[in-house]
Amino acid sequence: MDQQKYLTNQRNKEKILQGNNLEQERNKNLQENKAGRLKKIVVPLLQWYDNNARDLPWRENSEPYAVWISEIMLQQTRVEAVKPYYDRWLKAFPTLSALAAAPEEEVLKLWEGLGYYSRARNIHKTAKIVEENYEGMLPSSFEALLKLPGVGEYSAGSIGSIAFQLPVPCVDGNVLRVITRITAEDADISEPSTKKLLTEWVRAIVPDARPGDFNQSLMELGASICLPNGLPKCESCPVSSLCEAFQQNKTTDFPVKKPKPQRKKEKRTVLLILLGDKAAVRKRKDSGLLASLWEYPNYPGELKEQEVIEKLQAKGLSPVTAIKLKKAKHIFTHIEWQLSGYLVTLDESLFSEKQVDWAEFSGGEDDFFWANSDLLHEHLTIPSAFKVYHQILLNTLQSAH
Ligand code: SF4
Q: What is the model's pTM?
């Protein structure tokens, strides 16, 4: 390479390098500006919260135990749905020690219908750990909270800041939405790196004086004013003058989030099988979807009446009638069940099976346990995926009484 060419190459490389450095510098300044803008929201947001916080049962009790229960219940669940569960829970288990001493079936029964049952199991496990290792008091450091079953960054942040006044962030979907709008941040919020960056921004502004109230004020703003799906009530927002998206008339552009993959749809047929005043239930596998919960027998596909009869006859049962029931649907995070159902009556005179106590029943998919309505009401946890059929069954057992 001659001298001239060499020098030209070198100059080009330097230009590219300078360009990259400038770009990095610009990005850094932009990020610092956004983080700086956020600092100004603390005071108006707290003032707004003082005057507008909703009256919620868990806000009347800042005991760490009550805060923890409410925060776990509120994960992926609407406030209105949680209220009755929270009240019932604290009546049944007024202290962490009472919870730790309860059998798991009782804990799950109280959770029945709230979904994501691993939360209830983790609460129960945590209660036992805390009883054994922390003299029945939830630990008050962020790091120790994070080690408890079912407590992630978000829950450790909310419990830590609300119950123990730790100046730590808690960033949920509501908070991500609010922060990206205020800062007009267009990074994809489904990316962990974006969540990490925004969490650091919030960490930098959580005040030492009222960390729990501040975190709640951000969540409250997201839940009641800075609403999702392009419908924020900016005219009532206490930080609209600081909000970049509002100032640029671009509130519908934020947050940026890549679309979720389509849920898989699965048809299943649920059978309510009656044997006198009892109905067939079975226990699910101890891992995977709805692990270890009770359910009504159900099978893949949309079965025809004759297929139902043959299926039960193949199990040695004697169906007399099979009445088609209404259809139902249940949506899980990744899957949608499209359910059809039958109410099947068996000939009691041809039945001779003896059964163990329900608490000892550990049968698999092919084993049925015959439960009466008292047992179904008081002890067995039937997930809400079966809600429609559960209600039909309880009504049928009651009217036959
Ligand atoms: S001004 Fe509108 S978009 Fe901005 S934070 Fe308030 S409600 Fe959300």
A: 0.81
